[in-house]
Amino acid sequence: MMLGTSYLSLRTGASTPNALYVSLEAPADARRRCVVQAVPGLTPNSDGETLDLSSGPKPLHFAADSTRTLIVTVLPTGPYDPDLRDEDRYPFSIVLSAHP
């Protein structure tokens, strides 16, 4: 739903590459956009990164034996009154791959 957030936790394993490519598949809808964030950040005092997936897959890097969480939030692209909630759902899929 609008302003809804999903959390996907990813943990590296022995055979996990240093980076996976992340892409977002969602039906085109001019009323909303999905923002994808990766936390925690890989550098000290970093809050993480925002992945701009609008132009295709982007790499998601991992530190050794680490866990990262992808946070996907659906945001309106125009005026929106959160007090007038409806039952509309905005499905999406996150695709992870070893290659872009």
Can you describe this structure?
With 100 residues, this protein is mainly β. The chain is 0% helix and 44% strand. It has no helices and seven strands. The strands form two sheets. It has a four-stranded antiparallel beta sheet with strand order 1-6-3-4, with no helix packed on it. It starts with a strand and ends with a strand. The mean pLDDT is 90.
Provide a concise account of the structure shown.
This protein has 100 residues and is mainly beta. It is built from no helices and seven strands. The chain starts with a strand and ends with a strand.
Number of helices: 0
Shape: elongated
In N-to-C order, the SSE pattern is EEEEEEE
| Whole-number mean pLDDT | 90
DSSP strand content: 35-45%
Task: Estimate the helix proportion, in percent.
Answer: under 10%
Class by alpha and beta content: mainly beta
Distance between the termini: 29 Å
Biggest sheet: strand arrangement: 1-6-3-4
